[in-house]
């Protein structure tokens, strides 16, 4: 499965680059300068904790929920990469629902519409990781502009920001839905430079997944990987400028 994930991610990036002649090539090994950072663009998952969704899956389907959650999350992101490569866009809410239904069928699980909707709606009420609020407070005090740059739909971002009490922290809530594509397509990453009116080297991208850290770095962003799962780095020829297992490590990195 890992090799397949790498192949799909690289294919999506390659296909996107082939259709984006207006974006100049930026080398992933361009020197990093902390002093140039003016803004931070976060993926959703360094901020929002998806584990309660998976705990709900186990509650609804005892002894099978963990595998359902694993299959669901894997297929969820495979579908974004495949749709980006095929240029057959559907928004992340639709992709998430399709991935859930596929995972259930794969495991021969029968669930009601109510159970499906309960699992889906859990993605609108995600909790914060414990280190988020103090880290964001520190970053704001350092006069850094904060933004989301996520595959989440605008509705998903808005609902989770409100539910988590983060209103006012983020200057921009950027959904790749605006570009009708998904990361690692360069058109997705470019949304932050356009919205914040900054150069790539002035925006630090903070990723949850190793492939997203690699994609952002290949695009030309300085990159920090919040490796909460303590996974090995993806073999995608792009090393993040910094990494750690918490947002506290991000604050130290920028100090």
Task: Please describe the structure with a list of short key phrases separated by commas or semicolons.
255 residues, alpha/beta, Rossmann fold, DNA polymerase, domain 1, 6-stranded parallel sheet, two-stranded antiparallel ribbon, 10 helices, 48% helix, globular, disordered N terminus
Overview of this structure, please?
- The chain is an alpha/beta fold.
- It has two domains: 2-48 and 127-254, HAD superfamily/HAD-like (Rossmann fold); 50-124, DNA polymerase, domain 1 (Orthogonal Bundle), CATH 1.10.150.240.
- Helices cover 48% and strands 12% of the residues.
- It is built from ten helices and eight strands.
- The protein has helices at 2-18, 51-60, 65-86, 92-106, 113-121, 132-141, 154-164, 186-196, 210-219, 247-254, and strands at residues 39-42, 48-49, 127-128, 145-150, 172-175, 203-207, 223-226, 242-244.
Short summary:
This protein is of the alpha/beta class and 255 residues long. The protein has helices spanning 2-18, 51-60, 65-86, 92-106, 113-121, 132-141, 154-164, 186-196, 210-219, 247-254; strands at residues 39-42, 48-49, 127-128, 145-150, 172-175, 203-207, 223-226, 242-244.
Per-chain topology:
Blueprint (H helix, E strand, L loop, with lengths): L1 H17 L20 E4 L5 E2 L1 H10 L4 H22 L5 H15 L6 H9 L5 E2 L3 H10 L3 E6 L3 H11 L7 E4 L10 H11 L6 E5 L2 H10 L3 E4 L15 E3 L2 H8 L1
Parallel strand pairs: 1-4, 1-6, 4-5, 6-7, 7-8
Antiparallel strand pairs: 2-3
